[in-house]
Amino acid sequence: MGEAATTTRPPTKTERVRRPSTKKSTKKTSAGRAGSRTSETKREPRQVSAAGAMRNAAAQLQELLGRAPESVSAVKPTEEGWQADVEVMELERVPGTTSVMASYRVTLDKEGELVAYERTRRSTRGQIDQR
Hints:
Number of strands: 4
Low-confidence stretches: 14-40
Order of helices and strands: HHHEEEE
Helix content: 25-40%
């Protein structure tokens, strides 16, 4: 008696509904995703904060120079994005006060991506600005 019930059992409603709906939901999902992609491309670029600009300037300059920045000594907004001054040790010497330091001016766009940099000054670590 138990065997007859097992072999003649009809499929449940859940099984019937699930199979065809999988194909339909895939089409709807891909169409929905395509629509959201177009809306993402129309978004305005998000402007980065001053703290984010400092982090981006240091990280991207390190990637380009291959040297870790010591500090970011200045950051200011511009019409195009941000400008930051980043201090980098270019040549380590003993004693440390004779190490060669360089200051780089880094230009970032509004999204915080580096668009330009230039070395503006070189000095020894122990040197003090004369102003």
